[in-house]
Amino acid sequence: MLNKQQIRFCLDTMGEMFPDAHCELNHKNPFELVIAVALSAQCTDVLVNKVTASLFEKYKSPEDYLAVSLEELQNDIRSIGLYRNKAKNIRNLCQMLIEDYSGILPKDRDELTKFPGVGRKTANVVVSVAFGIPAIAVDTHVERVSKRLGFCRWKDSVLEVEKTLLKKVPKEEWSATHHRMIFFGRYHCKAQNPQCEICPLLEVCREGKKRMKGKEKVG
Fold first, then answer.
1. Catalytic residue, candidates 76, 86, 139, 168
2. Domain boundaries in the chain?
C-alpha cells in the first residue's frame, strides 16, 4: 500500500499528465448527463456520444421519452450494448422523475440511486459533474489504477475502493482525481498493454514493477 507521500506524488503526477481531464460524455444539462451515464455501462464514451448526438436532438425532456413506444426508443439506441434493458430503464427513470420529482433531477446521491439504472457510480458522476459536489466515481479505470498503484488492496470491492480513495485523497481534489484517474487508466495505464516502460509512476507502482521484472526475465 502506498504511504501518504507516495499518494501525493501519484496525485500530482497524474495532475501534470492530464491537467484538463474531464467528463467525456457530451451533455448540456444534468438530465442529459444521467441518460448518457446510464447508457455508458459496458460501453465506450465514444460510442455513447455518437448515439446521444441524435438522441438528445429528438428527446429534450422526460416527457419526450415517454411519448414514444419502448420499441422506438430501443431502435434509437440499438447500437449500444444492453440496449433493451437500458431503454426500459430510461423510460422508468423518466416516469419516476416526473411523478416523484416534478421533472427536476435531484442533487442528492442517495436520491439518485433510487432511479432505475442509476447505481452508485452513475450517481457520483452526476453529483460531481452536473452539480459540482465533491465525489469520486469508481469505474473500471479508477478501480484498476487504484489497485495497480496500491492505493487499496487487490481484493477490495468497488465500494471499498471508493471509501479508501475518499479517505486518502483531499476532499477538494475528489472530483479532479476521479477524472484524472479515468484519463490515466484510459490513455496510459490501459487494461491491456499498460505503458509501464514510460510511466512516471513506475517507481511507486507495485504492479508496474512486477510487469517490468517479468519482461526482464523473458528478455
1. 139
2. 4-21+137-218, 30-129
Q: Examine the residue annotation and report whether 139 is marked as an active-site residue of this protein.
A: yes
pLDDT per residue, tens digit, the chain (219 aa), is 899 999 999 999 999 999 999 999 999 999 999 999 999 988 999 999 999 999 999 999 999 999 999 999 999 999 998 999 999 999 999 999 999 999 999 999 999 999 999 999 999 999 999 999 999 999 999 999 999 999 999 999 999 999 999 999 999 999 999 999 999 999 999 999 999 999 999 999 989 999 888 776 655
Question: What is the fold of 4-21+137-218?
Answer: Endonuclease Iii, domain 2 (1.10.1670)
Catalytic residue flag (residue 121)? yes
* Active-site entry in 50, 121, 209, 215: 121
30-129 is classed CATH 1.10.340.30: yes
Q: DSSP for the chain? A: ---HHHHHHHHHHHHHH-TT----S--SSHHHHHHHHHHTTTS-HHHHHHHHHHHHHH--SHHHHHSS-HHHHHHHTTTSTTHHHHHHHHHHHHHHHHHHHTT---S-HHHHTTSTT--HHHHHHHHHHTT--------HHHHHHHHHHTSS-TT--HHHHHHHHHHHS-GGGHHHHHHHHHHHHHHTS-SSS--GGG-TTGGG-HHHHHHHHHHHHH-
